[in-house]
UniProtKB/TrEMBL annotation:
Pfam families: Ala_racemase_N. Residues 7-227 form the Alanine racemase N-terminal domain. Keywords: Pyridoxal phosphate. Pyridoxal 5'-phosphate (PLP)-binding protein, which is involved in PLP homeostasis. Coiled coil: none annotated. HAMAP family: PLP_homeostasis. The keyword Translocase does not apply. Transmembrane segments: none annotated. This is Pyridoxal phosphate homeostasis protein. It comes from Rhodoferax mekongensis. Belongs to the pyridoxal phosphate-binding protein YggS/PROSC family. InterPro entries: Ala_racemase_N, PLP-binding_barrel, PyrdxlP_homeostasis.
C-alpha cells in the first residue's frame, strides 16, 4: 500500500473508534479528504485507495485539479472562503460548497449553477466560537440565513459547517462541537430537512464525532504536512 492508502485506513479506524466511543453507528460519519496544496497524483492515489469525496480551499487551484482529474468519479467539495468573483467557478465545478455565510453569495451560486447539473449541495458556515477566524455567520443569525438559503432553487441546503479554534482539551473541544450541533438542531426544528454537520479536522476529529459530526474534513493526517501558511 502507498503511504496515502495507509493513512486513509488509519483515519477510517480513528473515525470508527470515535463512533464506537460515543455510541454512534459505524458509518454515520463521512470522510472528506482535504487535498489542498497537493497535486493530482496525490488525489489519484487516494482515489485508487477507494476515497471518493475531496475538499479544496483555493478555488483556482481546485479548478485546475478538477479539470486534470475529470475522468475520475470524484465528488468535489469547496471548503474555502468564496468571494463574489469566484461564485461562478464554484457553481460550475463543485458538487458541494461548505462555506456559505451570506445570502448574496448563496444567491449568486444558485443563479450561476448550470441547468444541466443537479443542485449545488451547500452548508452554512457558522462561527460557533466567535474565533478570530471571522468567516461564518453568528449562531444567532444562522437559522434565519438557513431559512432563506433553503428557498433558493438551484441549491440544496444540507446542514452546517464550522472551523472552531483549537480547544485546550477533548472536553472543551467537544463542547464547542455540541454548540454547533445545537445550531443544527434549531434549523431542523424549523422544518429544514438537513443531514450534514461538517466539522472536525486531523487534530480534533475525535471530539467532533463525539459532538455529532457527520462529515470530517481531513487533510494532513492523509496527505502529510502542508507547506507553512506563509507559502501555501
Ligand atoms: C485545511 C482544512 C482542513 C484540513 O485540515 P487538517 O488539519 O490538515 O486535517 C479542514 N477544513 C478546512 C476548512 C481546511 O481549510
Amino acid at each position: 500500500m502507498t503511504m496515502i492508502a495507509d493513512n486513509l485506513h488509519a483515519v477510517a479506524q480513528r473515525i470508527a473508534q470515535a463512533c464506537t466511543q460515543s455510541g454512534r453507528p459505524a458509518g454515520s460519519v463521512r470522510l472528506l479528504a482535504v487535498s489542498k496544496t497537493f497535486g493530482p497524483d496525490a488525489v489519484q492515489q487516494a482515489f485508487d485507495a477507494g476515497q471518493r469525496a475531496f475538499g479544496e480551499n483555493y478555488i483556482q487551484e481546485a479548478v485546475d485539479k478538477i479539470t486534470a482529474l475529470s475522468a475520475l468519479a470524484i465528488e468535489w467539495h469547496c471548503i474555502g472562503p468564496i468571494q463574489s468573483n469566484k461564485t461562478r467557478l464554484v457553481a460550475e465545478h463543485f458538487q458541494w460548497a461548505h462555506t456559505v455565510d451570506r445570502l448574496k453569495i448563496a444567491q449568486r451560486l444558485s443563479d450561476q449553477r448550470p441547468p444541466h447539473l443537479p443542485p449545488l449541495q451547500v452548508c452554512i458556515q457558522v462561527n460557533v466560537d466567535g474565533g478570530p477566524n471571522k468567516s461564518g455567520v453568528t449562531p444567532q443569525d444562522a437559522v434565519a440565513l438557513a431559512l432563506e438559503v433553503a428557498q433558493l432553487p438551484r441549491l440544496q441546503l444540507r446542514g452546517i459547517m464550522c472551523i472552531p479554534e483549537p480547544a485546550p482539551d477533548f472536553v472543551a473541544a467537544r463542547a464547542v462541537f455540541m454548540s454547533a450541533k445545537a445550531v443544527f438542531d434549531a434549523m431542523v426544528a424549523q422544518g429544514l430537512p438537513l443531514d450534514t454537520l461538517s466539522m472536525g479536522m486531523s487534530g480534533d476529529l475525535d471530539a467532533a464525532v463525539a459532538g455529532g459530526s457527520t462529515m470530517v474534513r481531513v487533510g494532513s493526517a492523509i496527505f502529510g504536512a502542508r507547506p507553512t501558511p506563509a507559502s501555501a
